[in-house]
Amino acid sequence: MAKAPKAVSASLDFAFFNFLWEFYRGNRGTIRSHYKELTRKFLDFNNPEKNPKAFLRQPQFEALEIYIFLKEFMDNAKVEEIFKAWFEKSGRFAGRKEGGILGENRQGDLLDRMTQDQYKAVFAAMRKNSRVYPNYIFALTMGTGKTILMATCIFYEFLLGNKFEKDSRYCHNALVFAPDKTVLQSLKEIESFDLAQVVPPEYVNFLTTHLRFHYLEEAGTSLSTLDRSRFNIVVSNTQKIILKRQRKEKTPVDQLFGATGNTLGANGGVYAEASDLYDWDQPEEEAELTTNQRFEKLCRLEQLGIYVDEAHHAFGKALAKDMGIGTKATDTSLRTTIDFLAANLNKAGTRVVACYNYTGTPYVGKEVLPEVVYAYGLKEAIDKGFLKKVDLRSYRNTRSDEFVDIAIERFLDATNGLRPEGMLPKLAFFAATIDELTGDLRPAVERALGKHGIPTSRILVNVGDEKLTLNDDIREFNRLDTPDSEKQFILLVNKGREGWNCRSLFGVGLFREPKSKVFVLQATMRCLRAVGEAQHTGHVFLSNDNLEILNDELQQNFRISADELQKVSSDKERVQVRVVEPPVKIKLVRVRKQYTVREKVLSPGTSLGLDRSDQEAWNELIERYRLIETQQEGLTATDAARAVASRSIDLTLRRDKRQFSRLTLVAEIARYLNLRPSQIEDLLDTTREGTDELVEIVNEFNELLYDEIIPRLFQLIFDLDESQQTEEHEVELIKLPPNGYYEVTAAKDKIVRSTDVKAEEIDKSFHLDTYCFDSNPERTLFWDLLREQRVKKVYFTGMLTHGQSDFFIQYIDPDSHTVRSYYPDFVFLREEPGGGEKYVIVEVKADNQVDDAVVQAKMEFAEQLAVASGMEYRLLKATDANERRYRLLM
């Protein structure tokens, strides 16, 4: 009995998703080798580190990585099965290291080893919540882009499902659940979203042509999918599309006149045998008929993936119910609905591939949701600049008028002159009731605006009452996030819980205590969505009572306090970076290599050099493919040398081999040489070896087909001509921004302005008026180069790397074999000992990344460009930069 509290504590606090991420991050290369080639291409296209123009942000891409990891590496295993294999170090986790958490931002209370009791507690919690289908939760805090992530996952599913049609791991159709009409409207972003942002260009046309969207907004909307069709995305705003429960018990009279097959067949009788002819179970009402029509249509869609965009504004008990925690069989929760659908799909001969839930938090009260496989918290999102910073102010002993007056004054001072993306910053006040809004809040806001000379036409009211909120008001509300909107002060009732997305919202005010405590958290987070390139600040005005509620809700849902929330990113600063004119230009020589393939005529009797009768040459060729068993006595080489004899046995015959026929050999070679199979067959017949001999050779050693036969055939029938052109270009280190400046958010201690240096040093650098460094080694190297006499000019070029500069180097990615662009960290002009000058391109890399294949590929192509341009390329370790060994570059 004494061990029970320890086990319970483990089940409450243990966050398996952290250990899962660490395993993935530590074995990313090995895991990628199990992926389909199309999958690797899809990942690389969305990887911000490999594609500077990648649309997805860090949390979205990391969640996509885990999504694909679960599908292609773990084969859609359930969470409890994954956890069991992880704990036992079996299956895919065989040989894993002990799983401590690395990094201060990832939460995890159990380090390294788990006891058997702790494992049992966590496993029991997972098993208790298990479904017949895999069920995963991705917990990304509000504002990090869950809708776009969901769309990206669906696009990935359809691409892979199309190419590998018989692979049961991939979804051919998607059912998306939205909790209400407002969120359903935001989900329409999936259809309007430019999928070219997340899908490699060669696959965009396929998806554009084949995607079919179906929105079930009203109770009477029918579903018009074609039976057994693919690539349907069905979006419903209600769970009642399937589950329809009887609200009251039927009377005996109702049972008689509404008799069903079950009623009349229960005790046998004359009707029992022919009950299927009478259509007893036909629906009596049109709404029920529509429900059944939707249900029947869904049951005819194969390999259905279910996506729940439910809990990004559902917290606490509502979230627990939707995730199936503590529910009863009779509950009509969302989870029960999905279970019911999955069971009926199985009966119809199809299946639910998996259910993917996108929530805002991994926690329900003190518990971690068992099925969470990836989480990105509120603190991380603010710290990384994916959300606004928070300025929180609370008030006591103030009346409504005073609260509104102070809040508006503070808000106007903080946002004076601010127009991110051309939009006016907005402030929203939430009232508990319509009467409070019309009687107290609106008059107070009008009086406060009058003190600042702001017209009342800047006020917009949205309360859900047609008498107060007209169609024109709804239109204005929907266009708040546009530069043309002149509405600035938004008065709302209960709008914080309905998935309202407004990036230009910079402040919220909540004075009276609402009926729902979680509403305070929901309303607070409304103003934190990021806008523009730099990180701005959201302003929250609360009464003291509401601040206490906010603290409780933050602790329960994000494990953070209001004080800690305000301190996040307090060491960072939003900077307007301007180009110093005239823009700096550098001459680069780009090397263009062109390869031309010319087909030759193969002379009859030409040998491929594979002669099995030449024993010496043949044995030398196949030696590396033999399977040899060596037997020796003793453990060491010394023991083996003293032994009387050792034995080597050739076990090559036991190797697994594919048996080729004449037909399959010709087909396989045709795949690689891109020639007609009939043409390949004629070519093989004209060789000295002949097709039949080559079949025997390949069946003896399959590897010879790919290592020798195909390459030698290519050389015999094609000539490869290489030509090289050099083109000199004058490139700008930075392009002029459209609005006069770039916005960047950076740590205060890594910002260096031109005003921070001596007057004689300004001319030596600063093609931008401010440099924002990513790391201490970069900043240290900059100061050293700036003060080095042999350095005549030095520019930091690693700051703006998303198309703002023409100073980039193209290279071939070693994983995806595609052309990518990379932006070096520095370029400086060095005085040579002989009196000349030379540009040096510098990249600063962490010591553990220097030998990475991608870094080496970048260096190889950068050196080619540097040599052609009369420059020099140098890779400097971060430790060398930190320890001021910059003279290695001299």
From TrEMBL:
Specify the Helicase/UvrB N-terminal domain's residue ranges.
Answer: 117-316
Pfam families the UniProt entry points to? ResIII (PF04851), Tn7_TnsA-like_N (PF08722)
Record keywords, A-Z: ATP-binding, Helicase, Hydrolase, Membrane, Nucleotide-binding, Transmembrane, Transmembrane helix
Q: What stretches pass through the bilayer?
A: 136-159
TnsA endonuclease N-terminal domain residues are 807-876
Q: Name one GO molecular function term.
A: DNA binding
Protein name, per record: DEAD/DEAH box helicase family protein
Query: Could you tell me which species this protein originates from?
Result: Ectorhizobium quercum
